[in-house]
Design a protein that fits this description.
The structure holds 2 protein chains of 2 kinds. By secondary structure, chain A is α+β, with helices and mostly antiparallel strands. Chain A folds into 2 domains: 7-56, 2-Layer Sandwich (Uridine Diphospho-n-acetylenolpyruvylglucosamine Reductase, domain 2), CATH 3.30.43.10; 58-118 and 159-328, Uridine Diphospho-n-acetylenolpyruvylglucosamine Reductase, domain 3 (2-Layer Sandwich). Chain A contains 13 helices and 12 strands. In chain A, helix 11 runs antiparallel to helix 12 and helix 12 packs antiparallel against helix 13 (306-328). Chain A is globular. By secondary structure, chain B is of the alpha+beta class. Chain B folds into 2 domains: 4-78, Beta-grasp domain (Ubiquitin-like (UB roll), Roll), CATH 3.10.20; 89-165, Orthogonal Bundle (DNA polymerase, domain 1), CATH 1.10.150.120. Chain B is 37% helix and 13% strand. Chain B is built from 5 helices and 5 strands. Chain B has helices at residues 25-32, 89-96, 106-119, 125-132, 142-165, and strands at residues 4-10, 13-19, 51-53, 59-61, 74-75. In chain B, the strands form 2 sheets. In chain B, strands 2-1-5 form a 3-stranded mixed sheet, with no helix packed on it. Chain B has a two-stranded antiparallel ribbon with strand order 3-4. The longest helix of chain B has 24 residues, at 142-165. Chain B is globular. Classes of the chains: A alpha+beta, B alpha+beta. Chain A binds chain B through residues 1-8, 10, 34-35, 38-39, 42-43, 51, 53, 55-56, 80, 103-107, 109-110, 228-231, and chain B through 1, 4, 20-24, 27, 43-46, 48, 51, 54, 58-61, 64-66, 68-69, 112, 115, 129-135.
């Protein structure tokens, strides 16, 4: 497959890039590492007139500790660099695990954290070659008002497949969005929205420039299942962060990935753990609640019902791991 | 869409080529420079046959790299790993331990393995799995590939010892 032609813009600075974004409105696509966008363009899912390449822009490649102990990671940092970063390994091992689980080594050498956070939603019916798609009618993602996965729906249910997204929500991280009007900081939890066509709150002319991870407050865990561990997008992923003791937790945040157009925060399951702490029974109950909280699931690459059973098992295993972390110290 | 004059530095040699922004590094190397050692596979980042090594020796997918972004940045391909008239230890081990069958994926596998061994000559099983997961072979079956990489690592370690002694 070849790429469709486009006008290539390589800014010398972020300011120059923001100007290009403001100028070209919705005709411009932002490329960071390119490992996702270029594939979508080859599949003719994206055909921007202009391509803004932020690849290698020095301003977006800084990793710095802020005064309050937070870590500010530039959106252009390559995933391999972050997975090998000593500070991230030491302070946020679960985030390191999430980043390390993205794609293959080859993809991580090219892809960036900003790209992974913004990763476009995916669906069995659209993320295919043009010829494959032509064998049936279009859908919300292409040119028709229908969804092949959930027939009765009125919106696109393509799945968010970012691995870093759920983990960053659990760690209470924020993203920095920049446009010509200035910068705004948005909690990652509010960055995503439940619409496969428009899955982030990024406005036209805006770009994600950094992610800020607050100092670690307790323990965290990341779990993921994919068809092939070394390469595929997650069939389901789960990120959790807790503080306090197993008997009495002070805070809980549980997030599922690859189950909806956005990473899904599991309020009900979290409440069970807040009330009962981490015990065999509460973990079982939370895993059950996680399963029940998935109503309309598009079973991307999996048979019907599989994803719900998968999530239940994933949550149970990961929470057990989280409980044992405290015991091991 | 206008073509740009860029300088690709492949295996230490500079080539001035006119490339359109939508041409990938793979396309320019194969179709303009006639360097066909790097293979064209899925062209969508799944198979790893187009793997080349970037500036720091890291494994990258040339099917997902825009040629214009590699203007002036050194790239190593399978054509550039031989050491004089001798095969690179990774190539030698692939031959000796039967890690090649049809050979189509071999350039990608060798470049992926070389990226690993360039920075780590004593890789664990997990290191090898991680480095090779994105480079797929459909006929050899990865057992012999991994055996070859372990043997190549051994050869490189012995070389380090000998170099240290001399």
């Amino acid at each position: 497959m070849q790429l469709p032609p486009f006008e290539y813009i390589r800014p010398e600075s972020l300011a120059e890039g923001l100007q290009a974004l403001a100028e070209h409105g919705d005709k411009i696509a932002i490329m960071s590492g390119g490992s996702d966008l270029l594939i979508n363009m080859k599949f003719r899912l994206d055909g921007p007139e202009y391509l803004l390449s932020l690849n290698g822009l020095p301003e977006l490649q800084l990793i710095e500790e802020l005064d309050d102990g937070s870590l500010r990671i530039g959106a252009g940092c390559k995933l391999t660099e972050l997975a090998n970063n000593a500070l991230i390994k030491e302070r946020y091992p679960a985030l390191q695990a999430a980043i390390f689980s993205v794609g293959s080594r080859h993809v991580r050498n090219m892809g960036t954290i900003g790209g992974n956070i913004c990763l476009d939603t995916r669906c069995w019916y659209t993320n295919q070659s043009e010829t494959w798609r032509d064998t049936r009618d279009g859908c919300f993602k292409t040119d028709s008002e229908q969804c092949h996965v959930i027939k009765t729906t009125t919106k696109c249910h393509a799945l968010s497949s970012t691995d870093s997204g759920p983990m960053l929500i659990a760690l209470d991280a924020s993203v920095v969005l920049a446009s010509q009007a200035g910068e705004r900081v948005v909690p990652v939890r509010e960055f995503y929205q439940d619409d496969g066509l428009d899955h982030t709150v990024l406005e036209p002319g805006e770009v994600l420039v950094a992610v800020i991870v607050p100092p670690p407050r307790g323990r965290a865990v990341f779990a993921k299942l994919a068809q092939r561990e070394g390469l595929d997008f997650a069939a389901g992923s789960f990120a959790a962060a807790v503080s306090g003791s197993n008997e009495k937790l002070d805070s809980v945040c549980l997030v599922m990935g690859s189950v909806a157009p956005e990473p899904r925060v599991m309020e009900q399951a979290g409440k069970i753990l807040m009330d009962a702490g981490l015990t065999d029974e509460s973990i079982d109950a939370a895993a059950g609640a996680a399963r029940l909280s998935l109503d309309e699931v598009t079973n991307l690459f999996t048979p019907p019902g599989y994803k719900k059973r998968l999530i239940r098992a994933l949550v149970k295993d990961a929470l057990t791991e989280l409980r044992d972390q405290a015991v091991r110290g | 869409m206008a073509k740009q004059l860029i300088t690709l530095i492949v295996n230490g040699d500079s080539y001035e080529v006119a490339a359109a922004p939508h041409q990938t590094l793979l396309e320019v190397m194969r179709d303009i420079l006639n360097m066909t050692g790097t293979k064209r596979g899925c062209t969508a980042g799944s198979c790893g046959v187009c793997t080349v090594n970037g500036e720091q020796g890291e494994a990258i997918l040339s099917c997902l790299a825009l040629a214009v972004e590699w203007d002036g940045r050194p790239v190593t391909t399978i054509e550039g790993v031989e050491e004089g008239d001798k095969l690179h230890p990774v190539q030698q081990a692939f031959l000796e331990y039967g890690a090649v069958q049809c050979g189509f994926c071999t350039p990608g596998l060798v470049m992926s393995a070389k990226a690993l061994l360039d920075v780590n000559t004593d890789p664990t099983e997990a290191d090898i799995n991680e480095a090779m997961a994105g480079a797929i072979c459909r006929c050899t079956g990865h057992i012999k590939v991994k055996k070859a990489i372990r043997e190549a690592a051994k050869a490189l370690r012995e070389r380090e010892v000998n170099d240290g002694a001399s």
